Amino acid sequence: DRPIGVLALQGDFREHLAMFGELGVEAVSVRRPEDLERVAGLVIPGGESTVMDKLSRLFGLAGPLKAAVASGLPVYGTCAGLIMLADTVRDAIDGQQTIGGFDVVVRRNAFGSQLDSFETDLDVPVLGDEPVHAVFIRAPVVETVGEGVTVLSALDDGRIVAVEQGNLLGTSFHPEITGETRFHEYFVEKVRARV
Ligand code: GLN
After folding, report:
1. Residue 195: is its pLDDT beyond 70?
2. Distance from C-alpha of 85 to C-alpha of 76, rounded to nearest angstrom
3. CA–CA separation, 69 vs 42, rounded Å?
4. Which of 26, 117, 137, 162 has the most C-beta neighbours closer than 10 Å?
5. Residues in contact with ligand 1 (CB, 6 Å cut-off)
6. pLDDT tens figures, 149-183
7. What is the pLDDT of residues 123-148, one digit of tens each?
8. Where are the beta strands (DSSP E) in 45-188?
9. What residue numbers does the annotated binding site for L-glutamine cover?
10. Is residue 87 classed exposed, middle or buried when 0-12, 13-18 and 19+ CB atoms within 10 A define those classes?
11. Which atom in ligand 1 lies closest to the alpha carbon of residue 108?
12. Which residues contact 52 (CB under 8 A, 6 or more apart)?
């Protein structure tokens, strides 16, 4: 079995690697195009999407990442990672680009400076009855979803915070830092279903 990759340019990639370790699933850091070729799936972590975008272009990864998404590689983005996967980003900084592929419009830092971070319990039916304890840190929200996108979870006010489309999975929040393993398990199933 090929390992799952975690994009390790910037952000909380260590937490994702640790999460897969906890699940007994082999995971490796992805920093170069060669690394990408040997993984069965990829996680794009939380962090800062503007920096991740710049580094991915600097390291020659932007093109290979686009090609990987287009080829059907399963990819899970958390927070900044979800921004990286979005076709359209609102409140992007000048010149910010994304890998794209996810037919969603995402707004960066959607909760504003009054509410930089917060925690809440979310219903995520696809993961079972037990709610997901979610941590949001300068988090994006999904403002619009295209036809092929499934909404996996929304806040009580209706704002969408977890989505899936074909090979792509995205959350506005960070399961990797709360010990919530079910999103990673769900993603591992997605990877194995493809292989
Ligand atoms: N605000 C960050 C961005 O725009 C995302 C924050 C996060 O990943 N926790 O990339």
Report:
1. no
2. 9
3. 9
4. 162
5. 46-49, 79-80, 83, 108-109, 137-138
6. 999 999 999 999 999 999 999 999 999 999 999 99
7. 999 999 999 999 999 999 999 999 99
8. 75-78, 86-90, 102-107, 117-122, 132-137, 141-145, 150-154, 160-165, 168-171
9. 47-49, 108, 137-138
10. middle
11. 4
12. 7, 9, 10, 11, 44, 80, 81, 84
Whole-number Å distance, alpha carbon 79 to ligand 1 midpoint, is: 6
- Per the structure, how many domains does the chain have? 1
The domain spanning residue 85 has which CATH number? 3.40.50.880
What is the spatial distance between Cα 104 and Cα 124, in angstroms, rounded to a whole number? 19
Dihedral pair phi/psi, residue 10, rounded to 5°: -175, 155
- Distance from the alpha carbon of residue 1 to the mean position of ligand 1, in angstroms: 32
Domain extent for 139: 4-194
Residues belonging to the binding site are 47-49, 108, 137-138
Q: Which atom of ligand 1 is nearest to the CA of 83?
A: 10
In contact, 26 and 20? CB cutoff 8 Å: yes
E strands, 49-113, in order: 75-78, 86-90, 102-107
**Which atom of ligand 1 is closest in space to residue 50's alpha carbon?**
10
Q: Do 93 and 187 contact (CB within 8 A), yes or no? A: no
Query: Which are the catalytic amino acids?
Result: 79, 174, 176
Structure-block tokens of residue 18: 């640790």
